[in-house]
Design goal:
homodimer, alpha+beta, Nucleoside Triphosphate Pyrophosphohydrolase, Arc Repressor Mutant, subunit A, 7-stranded mixed sheet, 7 helices, 29% helix, DNA-binding
Chain lengths: 253, 253
DNA sequence: TGCCTTTGCGTACTTTTGACGTAAAGATAC
DNA sequence: GTATCTTTACGTCAAAAGTACGCAAAGGCA
């Protein structure tokens, strides 16, 4: 019925067949411990080379589900707060040859030498609940303070940088409670804000602001064992979902 | 040297081989005309079904370059302002069978029946400069007012909705000048803000705010042919790039 | 000419933000 | 025990940003 130009269709199909890609996920798992923002890194077997946790997306697997799966395996947590933040799809993302030399895998190099497109996800997790677990290509999984992160494999330093910028950008509507334990003090919350934003805040103004937000409730206890005046403990009020976007539904004709 | 468990490696490689995907780009091309926000849509040959412009990412092609290529072909513009905004990678994104029926392509259904992952990009373009051009599967390329968009093929209504929310979210650091002609009036700029944000603003306060921003310069002419008092024409001051993010480079050990 | 709408600019009030003062709590030094 | 020092938990005050609304001039139309 429709007059498609057959050669054009065939041509298109050929092009189409060339349009398949390896798709992976790279995860920047943020935690907060001892007043420092940290990320979870993996050391590859028999090397001193580190990378972000990651993995491949299976056929017919939802990308969000794949991200959950991969991050769950590294953290032992079962429902992470994840946020897709960028697609890393440059034609040349890093020096592949140099990278393969570093991780010297006993697999067919050709297979691994194709360009891979990566979906960047960041996760906000409660540091103390994580059980860092390497995967079968790596032997150590550990927290690194953001300031100390070494030169990583692939383009992973870049990915961390972009993740941090993204986190900073949607800082205001991000549920930071995922990064904190159940109870915490206001100064601790302030350090968290400061490290993410990369600036230092006036404690007195911070206190005012955070109290005015009405999201916190004070417990009767104070944090013991501090060198100075013992600060009160707080907790996020239940309810209160932090992330709500206006609904906007498509018109169905 | 490294002791990899060989069966595990083989297994991994097998899994890996199953982790290839069709990757496409869907573009929400925003334009602004007659005080309305519009998107560019395509009508498929021999049907009355519309979709967003899109295309596939070629092997070894940078995804940003692919997006540029695809949008350029539909608009005739050569350097579009593009923004990656979301990855649509659910396992089931829409009713595939119903969709194929609607567009009845004369190609091997099996090939097209695999799940495709889409990268959503939005573009901000100057409506009057666009030459809407269909691709070889479609016969009409036209602007649709956002309010009138019909039920589209695939999950494209959803994609538009997410695009609009994203645009709204990073509204403040988005160079809206791409949506406007060289010269425009303050009320026109106000309508643009209002349509994107989905609310109505007080003209007097809007005027003050936009003047205080110092980004505009007034020309001596006024817009002729208005039914009422002729408004002045303005233009964005040169220089002044709107999008600047703090640089944050990886530490190289 | 009178009436209506829109533009261009102004005034006044409220809310938010930011700078900074200070007393109480807890630890340490003498 | 007392002086000192740091940190917490408030409070004050002024500048800045945001919001409500007044109004005259410009232009079209009856």
């Amino acid at each position: 019925m429709t007059e498609y130009n057959d050669p054009a269709v065939r041509y298109y199909q050929e092009v189409f067949d060339q349009c398949i890609h390896y798709l992976s996920i790279d995860g920047v798992i943020f935690g907060f411990h001892q007043n420092q923002l940290k990320v979870l890194l993996l050391r590859w077997k028999g090397t001193d080379a580190w990378s972000l946790p990651g993995g491949f997306i299976r056929k017919a697997e939802s990308v969000d589900v794949a991200a959950q799966r991969i991050m769950q395996e590294r953290t032992g947590l079962d429902a992470l707060y994840l946020q897709q933040f960028h697609v890393f799809g440059e034609a040349v993302r890093y020096d592949q040859e140099a990278t393969w030399r570093k991780i010297n895998l006993p697999v067919d190099g050709a297979k691994w030498s194709e360009r891979t497109i990566s979906l960047g996800y960041y996760a906000l997790v409660e540091h103390s609940k994580v059980i860092p677990t390497p995967d079968f290509l790596t032997e150590v999984c550990a927290w690194w303070s953001l300031d100390d992160v070494p030169a990583l494999l692939f383009d992973h330093n870049h990915i961390i940088a972009v993740a941090l910028l993204s986190l900073r950008k949607d800082f205001n509507d991000q549920p930071l409670n995922h990064l904190l334990p159940d109870t915490f003090t206001i100064p601790e919350l302030q350090r968290l804000h400061e490290t993410i934003l990369g600036l230092s805040l006036d404690g007195r103004n911070f206190y005012k602001k955070v109290m005015a937000s009405g999201q916190l409730e004070r417990l009767s206890e104070r944090r013991a064992g501090t060198p100075h005046k013992a600060p009160f403990l707080y907790r996020f009020k239940p309810s209160e979902p932090t992330n709500r976007l206006p609904t906007l539904e498509a018109k169905t004709a």
